[in-house]
Design goal:
CATH superfamily: Carbon-nitrogen hydrolase
Strand content: 25-35%
CATH class: Alpha Beta
Number of helices: 4
Structural class: alpha+beta
Strand order of the largest sheet: 4-5-6-7-8-9
Radius of gyration: 21 Å
Order of helices and strands: EEEEEHEHEEEHH
CATH architecture: 4-Layer Sandwich
CATH topology: Nitrilase/N-carbamoyl-D-aminoacid amidohydrolase
Length: 208
């Protein structure tokens, strides 16, 4: 089989703890992605705040760079949990060559169920921005496969076990956002504001 198995694990590399996606094929381990956008006071204690740390609390180190996973003819770009809210990370992965984006996590650590939906919505935005399929497998939350137009091809119910299947295709083209970054967003925002400010006033007809 040419299957690729990806699992979220705590790992240790060179004495540093990481929150990690690890990928296997039948040949063995083919790559991993260490989470980059760590949550302060949850996944690490910022410098100067060590006095409030709880014994046994996670103290992860961030990964460096896009850490693409190459398996068969796929180039996988990973992101974990709330990194779905950080478009710069997925943009970097795609610029470096990711042909599919994969993500996992645990939305159960957040108190309100609306957070799971917000993260699922953000995953759709990441798909559109990068022009990539997003495969999202959550321990708790909403799992889905999202196409480059932001449509959910399949979707689980929130926090319920599910097996999802969808046909996806690796993609190599780059969207304007991937090529040029945030200034594209600001340019469109300025154009929209300019259209509103400088458009002629509406004609008002009064009939007596």
């Amino acid at each position: 089989t040419n299957a690729v198995l990806v699992i979220g694990l705590d790992t240790v590399e060179q004495g540093h703890d990481h929150n990690t996606l690890v990928a296997w094929t039948r040949e063995g381990t083919v790559g991993w992605y260490h989470k980059r956008g760590l949550v302060p006071f949850s996944e690490y204690i910022p410098a100067g705040w060590n006095r409030i740390a709880v014994r046994g609390q996670s103290q992860y180190s961030p990964g460096k760079g896009s850490q693409l996973i190459r398996a068969h003819d796929l180039v996988l770009g990973g992101f974990i949990c709330q990194e779905v809210l950080l478009p710069a990370l997925t943009r970097e992965s795609v610029r470096d060559g990711a042909t599919i984006l994969i993500t996992g996590g645990n939305d159960g650590v957040f108190a309100h169920p609306a957070v799971a939906q917000a993260h699922a919505d953000a995953a759709q935005l990441r798909a559109v921005e990068t022009g990539r399929y997003v495969v999202r497998a959550m321990k708790t939350g909403i799992s889905a496969v999202i196409d480059p137009q932001g449509r959910e091809l399949v979707r689980s119910r929130s926090s319920e076990p599910a097996i999802l299947a969808a046909l996806i295709t690796p993609r190599s083209e780059q969207t304007p956002y991937v090529r040029f970054g945030e200034w594209v967003v600001w340019l469109f925002a300025l154009l929209a504001c300019g259209t509103f400010l400088f458009s002629p006033p509406p004609l008002i007809f009064v009939f007596e």
